[in-house]
């Protein structure tokens, strides 16, 4: 009984070991390769439980996800014999597992090195056909797309790799052309700024000239209106003065003499003859000063304040000139 139990247990153990050696599981992120004595027997990329011949066949699993190849920045020459420093990366994945396994023995590091050499060779051919300006600003996308298509076909045929894209991180100038490029950019910016300043000054001059012209027109119009108003006011004042002083010429002559006495004798010492015509009113010659009774009747009370020199009637002006000549001191 014990022998039978032991045998049964041993058989179960052997069966379990054989089952464990023959069964394997593939998840959705893997590709399985079954080999027998280092020879590829089959491949499988469907997820699930699979079986193989135990102890004879082996299973290797490979990552089916997208791989990213990051490399050191590389120098590429343009058609102007100038160097550019290009930083890029490559995205790829296994497409044909049989070709991949037989070409690189499933070694991802070796596949990455071979792919990097292929990418550099194709990029070198793309950059050498373009100028610095085209490579920097215009054809970056075109360069990468063309290189990706060409590399993808070559990599799939040689290594079973699908290249999803060659992506640029950045493109820098080499040391020998960086200073010249910066000088050129600086000169271009200065030219643009000078152009803007020149146009601004031109507009400023036009605006200033327009403003000065309009100001001059407004001032001229204002002066013209002021002259007209002043002339009208002077004419009106002259008429009123003429009417006021023309009412009594003797009183006007008397009033002008008093004004002359006030202006000439105030605080001054004069030596003159007593009978000089200049002092005829002081000597009671010709006429006497008006008293309190006759003064109001001599001249009507003025209704306006004088704003300019009075206009004297022709007759009174002639008489005044004659009398002024007579009162000149010897």
Automatic annotation (TrEMBL):
Q: Which InterPro entries match?
A: Band_7, Band_7/SPFH_dom_sf, HflC
Q: Might you report a single GO cellular component term?
A: membrane
Pfam families (UniProt xref)? Band_7
Topology in membrane: Single-pass membrane protein
Which CDD domains would you find in this protein's record?
Answer: SPFH_HflC
SUPFAM superfamilies in alphabetical order = Band 7/SPFH domain
- Molecular function (GO) terms listed? hydrolase activity
Identify the residues that the record assigns to the Band domain, covering every copy: 21-185
Q: Where is this gene product found?
A: Membrane
Q: Mind listing the UniProt keywords for this protein, alphabetically?
A: Hydrolase, Membrane, Transmembrane, Transmembrane helix
What does this protein's UniProt record list under function?
HflC and HflK could regulate a protease.
Please state which protein family the record places this protein in.
Belongs to the band 7/mec-2 family. HflC subfamily.
Q: What is this protein called?
A: Protein HflC
Organism this protein belongs to: Cardiobacterium hominis (strain ATCC 15826 / DSM 8339 / NCTC 10426 / 6573)
């Amino acid at each position: 009984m014990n022998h039978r139990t032991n045998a049964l247990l041993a058989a179960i153990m052997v069966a379990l070991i054989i089952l464990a050696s023959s069964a394997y599981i593939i998840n959705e992120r893997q590709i399985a390769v079954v080999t027998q004595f280092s020879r590829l027997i089959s491949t499988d990329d469907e997820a699930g439980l699979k079986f193989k011949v135990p102890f004879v066949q082996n299973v290797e699993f490979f990552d089916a996800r997208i791989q990213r190849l990051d490399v050191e920045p590389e120098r590429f020459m343009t058609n102007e014999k100038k160097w550019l420093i290009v930083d890029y990366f490559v995205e790829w994945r296994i497409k044909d597992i049989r070709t991949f396994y037989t070409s690189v023995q499933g070694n991802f590091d070796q596949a990455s090195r071979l792919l990097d050499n292929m990418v550099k060779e194709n990029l070198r051919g793309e950059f050498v056909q373009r100028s610095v300006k085209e490579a920097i600003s215009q054809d970056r996308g075109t360069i990468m797309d063309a290189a990706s298509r060409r590399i993808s076909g070559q990599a799939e045929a040689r290594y079973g790799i699908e290249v999803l894209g060659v992506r640029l991180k950045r493109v820098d100038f080499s040391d020998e052309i960086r200073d010249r490029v910066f000088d050129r950019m600086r000169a271009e910016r200065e030219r643009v700024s000078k152009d803007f300043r020149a146009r601004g000054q031109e507009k400023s001059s036009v605006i200033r000239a327009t403003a000065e012209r309009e100001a001059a027109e407004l001032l001229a119009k204002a002066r013209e209106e002021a002259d007209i108003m002043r002339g009208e006011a002077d004419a009106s004042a002259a008429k009123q003065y003429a009417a006021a002083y023309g009412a009594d010429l003797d009183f006007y002559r008397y009033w002008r003499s008093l004004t002359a006495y006030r202006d000439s004798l105030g605080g001054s010492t004069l030596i003159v003859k007593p009978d000089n015509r200049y002092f005829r009113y002081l000597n009671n010659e010709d006429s006497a000063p008006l008293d309190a009774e006759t003064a109001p009747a001599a001249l009507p009370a003025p209704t306006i304040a004088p704003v300019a020199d009075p206009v004297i009637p022709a007759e009174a002006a002639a008489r005044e000139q004659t009398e002024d000549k007579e009162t000149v001191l010897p």
